[in-house]
Amino acid sequence: MGKLLSRGFMCGAAIWIIFPIIVVCLAALNSGRTMFFPPEDPTLARFTEFFLTEEIWVRSLRTSFVVAFSSAGLAVLAAWPIAYGLWRRNDRGSKLIAGLALMPFALPPIVFGVGLVFFWGYLGALGNIWSGIISHAVLFPALPLTTLSIGLQSIDRAHLDAAATMGANEATAFRTIILPQMLPFTASGFFFALVLSFNEFIVIFFVSASGYSTVTVQIFNSLRNGFTPTMAVGAITFLTISALVFSLIARFGNLPQLLGSDSSKSS
Amino acid sequence: MSDLVLENLRKQFGSFVAVDGADLTFENGKLTALLGPSGCGKTTLLRMIAGLESPSRGKIMLNGQDIAPLTAEQRKFGMVFQSFALFPHLNVARNVSYSLRIAGVDAKTRRARAQELLELVQLGDKGRNRIGELSGGQRQRVAIARALAQNPEIFLLDEPMSALDAKLRNDMQMELRLLQQQLGITTIVVTHDQREAMTMADRIVVMSQGRIEQVGTPQEIYHRPANPFVASFIGNANLLQGRTIKNGVRVDQTELIVKGQGELVPGAEVTVFCRHEAVRLSTDSLGENCVPGLVTFVRDEGVAREIHLETPVGRITAEIPGSFHETVRIGDRLIAELSPDTLHLLPVAEGVAA
Amino acid sequence: MTALPLPARSPFKRLGLLHVAVILTLATIPFLLVFAISFGHKVEGAAWVWSLEFSNYKRFFVGSDYPDTVSFLYLKYLWYSVWYALVAAVLAVATAFPFVWQMIRLSRRAQTLWLVFFLCSLTFSEVFIVMGWDILMSNRSGLPMLFRETGITDWLKANGGLDLLREWGLATPRNVRFKPSQFATILTLTYLVWPYAVILLYPPISKIEREVIEAARTMGAGPLTVMRTVVTPMVRTPLIGAVLLLFVFLLGAYVTIAVFADPSSHTLSISVYEAVRGATLNAPFGAAQAVILLLTAAGVLVIGQRFMSAKSGGR
């Protein structure tokens, strides 16, 4: 009885989470200009529009990719020294640095967005795509910082002592011991940042200043003018990318460990 | 190659003194065990020799030079860690040849050396295995091979057997000792297991609370402990508190005769030391140093049995061969004979648990 | 062997310092700018100039024409920001907690699958989620149409349910109507952070030792008693922590409010956007509103921190 109840509860939760997503996905099959649910006269024409024929979507998808990949890469590069310093020294200074680096992610993004508008506006770079990339790169080091810290925690310090007794200095030990063991965590951090950048709306909405638009911004702009089923194709694309990335992280990394569960107990 | 000499070596963490002025000589080609309870500073001492901790004061002399200012990577003493610290991302052979790779040795030489060492530790066919595929004993052999790959001047081992189960531990102790003798390399092993130290070492350094209590061969340490701490830490001994008299010692009201301890100055506070296995038990004997006792506990260990007695001189434990006194039970009365040549007098030290 | 001097410093030090300086500049300067500009002066019909005046804050709290007239419009926006965020955060944590409690009993593989699922929905952009609920809620498609087609609307009309819903602002005389409404807003906000709540609660709950629960059960506690007397007190700190984090996150929610909330119950985020990038274009006033939003978030976090450290005592 209790088991049945708990199963029912979990199924209910799953349905509650997945219901609007399914609605969006099915809406993509609409043939007309307006969204209906359930779809009327299903067709796949919206997919060709989104990926190939409609200039506006093709371009914003490309922009989304450029912003996500570059900013995730930069975020990882930004996070590495901070995570390494935090792990190696673990003093007040390194904690303060990490805290400040986490700030843009921890505070309401709209405030950071406003600040970035002023910042880039001051530099005359508002609406440049690279200022958008840097904005995301500053927003998202929190994720690689977390995965890298978790990874570094799991490195046995005796490994470094062992390397030292065999003649490795800090740089050599970093290259031959730490870096190889940290690859999965670096990749996880990169992909977390990638997916979040991909889906981020508010900051990029502020800094893009109609100079360019990512898919999320384009969708929001279209939302205000009413739906088109093509937008739903964007949703499906994004969802697929997220699912793919997280499945990869789960497959090659230890997802429960990355999310902070006690891995020693159940693995 | 010369001896490794520590001169007044000290290590302090804040106000805690981990190693307090150690003066030691590690003879070339010999195996020395640093023995003591956990927290006695033995691991800190080893890590200072390896260069993983920098001494607060003192010198580490090797080949006539103070190597204390050198870092671990400059000393390149091989070390085997308690957890073995094998690199999980490298296979067995690459772990072994790690020191050669970072020193820029070419791949062919590296492979050959790794193979040579793996054969030395009887793992010649495991070179391509991953670390995760090895058993505990195999991992330890890899750790040993890895530490030896760079031909270190000093070979260091920190509690190398603690991750192994009891039976494997016995085998590995013998194996490690044979390997060390075969290579003739100066070796320092940290351990808290006196049996392990006695199995492997040429010399044992007993440490307690950052201080060196005694240095000597296993026989010396066992039979002639320098103080009550060593006496109680190594093997099993009865320790009685007393005061010297002309020809022996008085414990409470009982006078015990002591032989072979040189001239005795009457009236000095001493600790009387007698090994469990040196106590003889009988029902009627009335020889020298006989004390009557009441049996309070019997522990049967198969080959031997331990009989605890309450006597006028205090609690006495006797270890006798398993077949003797088979019918002894709690509450029986027996005579314990502490023959004069098995008693040793030690200076009284404060804060020692017998 | 020759004695070499110790390497004076880590090889990464210089590189690291430069790097950290760049990151910190980029991470902090925008916030400092917001703060500085909030004291700026708006020039009518033009941009703004640096200044040190409190008129923007005055306008926020009592309106620009004070003391002639008093306006609490922006305080009302702030109130709605706090209200939506608080209700949605509490709802999400309260429902996610029992869910996670069930989830940690599953096999590791099943847990990982669930986590992947939640991470996907967690990262799914706010715009898509709003789009999904919008389709579901909009009057020409989704639920209202479903209600009409299936006859639920008629049934509601017949037994007076529709009148009740009208009182709650969820219906028109002809059919149910979910948009705009506070109901739709809070529903979507809760949905938005629900997976987030699961991910936040998963680590502390998964670390509860099974033996503690079993010990309680051997002393005669049933599942509900265990939940009430053992589990909940053990994870009280993470529960409050999760509510606070979600609250801060929701405080800046924009898309949901823009789409689902009635203009009369809009929040500070909307008004910030209008001032900074939208129709009204008053950067200093937008900045001042952003500062207030930030201070609200910081205030709640500090109070929460105090509360938690007082509760958890010696831990």
UniProtKB/TrEMBL annotation, chain A:
- Residues in domain ABC transmembrane type-1? 61-250
Q: List residues traversing the bilayer.
A: 9-29, 65-87, 99-123, 129-152, 173-195, 201-220, 232-253
The keyword Cell membrane is assigned to this record: yes
PROSITE patterns per UniProt: ABC_TM1
| Keyword Phosphoprotein on entry | no
Q: Quote the subcellular location field of this record.
A: Cell inner membrane; Cell membrane
Q: How does it sit in the membrane?
A: Multi-pass membrane protein
Q: Which domain of life is it from?
A: Bacteria
Keywords on record: Cell inner membrane, Cell membrane, Membrane, Transmembrane, Transmembrane helix, Transport
Listed CDD domains: TM_PBP2
Q: Which Pfam families match?
A: BPD_transp_1
Which protein family is it in?
A: Belongs to the binding-protein-dependent transport system permease family.
Q: Can you say what this protein is called? A: ABC transporter permease
Organism, scientific name: Paracoccus onchidii
TrEMBL record, chain B:
Q: Which Gene3D superfamilies match?
A: 2.40.50.100, P-loop containing nucleotide triphosphate hydrolases (3.40.50.300)
Q: Which Pfam families does its entry note?
A: ABC_tran (PF00005)
Q: InterPro entries annotated for this entry?
A: AAA+_ATPase, ABC_SmlMolc_Importer, ABC_transporter-like_ATP-bd, ABC_transporter-like_CS, Mo/tungstate-bd_C_term_dom, P-loop_NTPase
Query: Does the keyword DNA-binding feature in the UniProt annotation?
Result: no
Which Gene Ontology molecular-function terms are recorded?
ATP binding
UniProt entry tagged with the keyword Aminoacyl-tRNA synthetase: no
Query: Sorted alphabetically, which keywords does the UniProt record give?
Result: ATP-binding, Nucleotide-binding, Transport
Domain ABC transporter: start-end pairs: 4-234
Tell me the first and last residues of the signal peptide: none
What PANTHER family does the database record attribute to this sequence?
A: SPERMIDINE/PUTRESCINE IMPORT ATP-BINDING PROTEIN POTA, SPERMIDINE_PUTRESCINE IMPORT ATP-BINDING PROTEIN POTA
* This protein's name: ABC transporter ATP-binding protein
UniProtKB/TrEMBL annotation, chain C:
Q: Does the keyword Metal-binding apply?
A: no
Domain of life of the native organism: Bacteria
Q: Give UniProt keywords alphabetically.
A: Cell membrane, Membrane, Transmembrane, Transmembrane helix, Transport
Q: Which residues form the ABC transmembrane type-1 domain?
A: 78-304
Q: Which InterPro entries match?
A: MetI-like, MetI-like_sf
Q: Which Gene3D superfamilies match?
A: MetI-like
Q: Which SUPFAM superfamilies match?
A: MetI-like
Parts of the chain that traverse the membrane: 15-39, 77-101, 113-136, 183-202, 237-261, 281-303
Q: Topology in the membrane?
A: Multi-pass membrane protein
Entry annotated with the keyword ATP-binding: no
Q: Where can this protein be found?
A: Cell membrane
As for family, the record states: Belongs to the binding-protein-dependent transport system permease family. CysTW subfamily.
Question: Under which name does UniProt file this protein?
Answer: ABC transmembrane type-1 domain-containing protein
Q: Which organism is it from?
A: Paracoccus onchidii
